[in-house]
Amino acid sequence: MSGTIPVMICLLVWLYVFTMFVLVGLIELLRAYLLVKSLGWCEGVFTYHVS
Questions:
Q1: Separation CA 10–CA 24 (nearest Å)
Q2: Is residue 11 domain-resident?
Q3: Cα(38)–Cα(4) distance, rounded to whole angstroms?
Q4: Residues 10-29: pLDDT tens digits?
Q5: 2 in a domain, yes or no?
Q6: Of 4, 5, 10, 17, which residue has the fewest beta carbons closer than 10 angstroms?
Q7: Residue 50 included in any domain
């Protein structure tokens, strides 16, 4: 703990990163749900498609 960066800034950065991680995960779950709903399990989820 060198004290170079204040603890509050570190905490805010980690909170931002965690929030973005959760947000991206939720978006991917929504995309998977919509793909399964429209294409089914085999074509919707188990087919790799770069988007």
A1: 21
A2: yes
A3: 52
A4: 999 999 999 999 999 999 99
A5: no
A6: 4
A7: no
| Residue 51 included in any domain | no
Q: Cα–Cα distances in Å, from 25 out to 3, 4, 7?
A: 33, 32, 27
Of 43, 44, 42, which is closest to residue 34 (Cα–Cα)?
44
Residue 19, token pair as written in the block = 């929030």
Number of folded domains in the chain?
A: 1
- First vs last C-alpha separation in the chain: 42
Range of the domain at 15: 7-44
Cα-Cα-Cα-Cα dihedral sign, residues 28, 34, 35, 36: positive
- Distance between CA 29 and CA 25 in Å, rounded? 6
Q: Cβ(32)–Cβ(45) under 8 Å?
A: yes
Longest CA–CA separation in the chain, Å = 54
